[in-house]
Amino acid sequence: MYTVPLPRIGTDIAWRDAAKRLISAGVSPDDVLWDFGAEMGELFATATPLPPPTRRIKAPQSFVQMADTVIWHKDPQRFGRLYALLWRLRHEQGLMQDRADPQLAKLRQMEKGVHRCKHKMKAFVRFRDLRQGGDRRSFAAWFEPTHHTVEPTAPFFARRFADMDWMIATPDVTAQFVDGNLSFHPGQPKPDLPEDAAEALWGTYFCNIFNPARLKVQAMTSQMPKKYWKNLPEAAHIRSLIEGAEAKVQEMRDNAPTLPPVRAERITKRLRGDED
Fold it and tell me: Where do the DSSP E strands lie in the chain?
């Protein structure tokens, strides 16, 4: 039995290296225990050293891409699920294209969940200005992702905000970008961040793009799940906007023009053949 400890930071690299060693040595999935972030404690502290790679096992690129995403899912069984599929891929050609396979279907579902979480992180991280002075501006944000998506998503923020220093703190992992260098550190409790003038701007922007005539609460909460509201400054306006939507729509009806524009009237006559 092999026990494989996996770190919270650099999980993808550690799992990939261990999986290559195990699969090349012919170690069955039933003989592997994956210990993420020392979750198993001291019970399995005396892990068996991994075997050295004996031969090269080439996995389909579609599996590699899927594994690079699923590895960040919160499901504690994700490592075992991935290795079990990799084990089957040795002899089951075309498995990655079998949509009816339940193991693959589960991993594809997890893959979608991670992609969705990465998208929400890009959309809902709200930085606050730390006002520290110096040559580069400094910002910080608190975020609570559904999955372990800080590491794979942080490079997006590094590219987008390359001209400033920033930190994204989460309960799991903290990303820091200082002087153009991206690094990762253990998670932390929610920091006490200073109030920021941008908070009001987010609220103003959200109120101005809100269209009461097209309000669909279920669709809105699907795109902006309630779990994120507590960290979104604009979310403070959602309840009042929803409650006032019907009255706002009626006001829009009352203020609508009673006569069609002159140009619209000419077009209507032309279509009816009334004009010479």
Answer: 2-6, 32-36, 128-129, 137-142, 164-169, 173-178, 181-186
Q: In this structure, are residues 171 and 187 in contact, taking their beta carbons and an 8 Å threshold? A: yes
203 with 233: CB under 8 angstroms?
yes
What tens digit of pLDDT does each residue of 254-268 get?
776 666 667 777 777
pLDDT digits (tens, 9 = 90+) for 234-258: 766 667 666 666 677 676 677 766 6
Res 163: pLDDT:
92
Residue with tokens 């994956």: 34
Print burial letters for 85-120: b (CB count within 10 Å at least 16), e (below 16).
Answer: bbbebeeeeebbeeeebeebebbbebbebbeebbeb
> What residue segments make up the domains of the chain, in order of their start?
2-119, 125-186, 198-254
